[in-house]
Amino acid sequence: MFILPNVPTTYHDGITFYQIAEATPYYVSPCGAVYSSLKDRCLTLADNGIGYLQVFLKLNNGSKKWRKIHRLVAGRFIPNPENKPDVNHRDGNKESNGVNNLEWVTKSENTRHAYATGLMKAKRGPEHHLYGKSASAETKAKMSAQKMGENHPKFKGWYVTPAGTFASAPAAAQVMGTHAKQIIRWCKSGKKRAEGYDFIPATSEGQALAIAA
């Protein structure tokens, strides 16, 4: 769902463009084109090096900045009542910046979608940073002496944090520099989902989501 904002518009080559608030000489269309009233033409879009299209704008405060097209379109046309931080391409195509292909998402939602669409892939084999490395005999003994993470008989689910997905709250707390109880509270309450915290239950469906996260 998108809305046409009540802002100044301009018409060019059969397309209606809507003014960009932080850079008023420029206008963006619902399909992701950017028009400059200074040059009386649509601006050329550039790849930012990782597949996202962007445009160079002179802002109202006098500074010049690159702005990603998908964020310009979402910010102008798509309501964000939950104040979600990221913009997702529904079909996984970073160059498809039409308003119907975009949606506001949380960090964890964005990560899951990236794995689901193939934009991100889990590193295995030679690509994994631990490939070819072996643990010491002492470490192996400790690992085999106790059940940890998903292998624990009371395992309940995965804790998703900005630092990664963990099979236990203590493991997440150690990396995040906080207490396990705090991790449990952040992940399970739902109040910090916009910041990348979530909890995935230990079900077959949850396991698939955890692998993706």
Automatic annotation (TrEMBL):
Question: Which intervals of the chain form a coiled coil?
Answer: none
User: Which top-level group of life is the source organism from?
Assistant: Bacteria
Q: Any idea where the HNH nuclease domain is?
A: 68-112
Q: What is this protein called?
A: NUMOD3 motif-containing protein
State the Pfam families in the record: HNH_3, NUMOD3
Hey, what's the signal peptide range on this chain?
Answer: none
Annotated Nuclease associated modular domain ranges read: 120-144
Q: Name one GO molecular function term.
A: DNA binding
